[in-house]
Amino acid sequence: MPPHILVTNDDGVQSRGLLALKQALETVGRVSVIAPDSNRSAIGRGITIHRPLHVEEVTLADGSRAHATDGTPVDCVRFAVLGLLGEVPDAIVSGINLGMNLGDDVTYSGTVAAAFEGILLGWPAMAVSQAMPMPGGDQWDDAAYDFRAVADFAARLVPTLLEPRFPRRVLLNVNAPGVPSERLTEARVTHLGRRVYNDELVLVSDEGRRRRYSIYGTPPSYRREEGTDFAAIDDQAISVTPLHFDLTDVEGLDRLGALGLPDAVSGDRSDG
Hints:
Layout: E1 4-8, H1 16-25, E2 30-36, E3 55-59, E4 65-69, H2 73-81, E5 91-98, H3 110-120, E6 125-130, H4 148-162, E7 170-176, E8 187-189, E9 195-196, E10 202-207, E11 210-214, E12 221-222, H5 229-234, E13 238-244, H6 250-259
Parallel strand pairs: 1-2, 1-5, 2-4, 5-6, 6-7, 8-13
Antiparallel strand pairs: 3-4, 7-13, 9-12, 10-11
Helix pairs in contact: 1-4, 2-3
């Protein structure tokens, strides 16, 4: 049987990016959609634990049915693997995100978080994002994006994702430049680059003892280094970065062991 693929995102169930991804993946498998009912961008690996979650069936722009929830992208993946669809998916594909998820940004991204949840639970997973179509454009205007090239590329990457030799604890983070398909140069295997954040503290209003500040908003930059996801996008190539979830600093284990740890119990503690 063709693989069963869960599609989710963090831009909301009615995003054109999600629809383009779903339609492209239907050429390689059976597709189900569970996605947030509204935008959940930059929510990272947030989950909903203090209230029940609502789910409703909705109709997408192509007439197909999907599940929308007031939860997070990670919640959507949990719904799928816990049986909401009647069968568990064979793979998780998250996107297509409006705007890229490169370098350090992956730690904030709800799109990448959904894919991380997939590999955490043992399912092959991919996150797909695309750059804004033009510098200074409105990132959230999905009508300005042409998703066809990256959606088709993601569909053709699914067999690699499902290949038995592909490690199950690794997700593929795919980013595409915002250029027409004829201007794409190639696809590259890359590593994460380093983002440079240009945030600043700006006082917006002062109302007695209550103040309002803006600390985000200035566009970030990055370090240009060959082999990184940023360099690929600069060269109008699709970037494919394998990511895993092991945050342990292996070299740090030896360093910490050599430095030693304090006793678990203070030496001046009395026994009586």
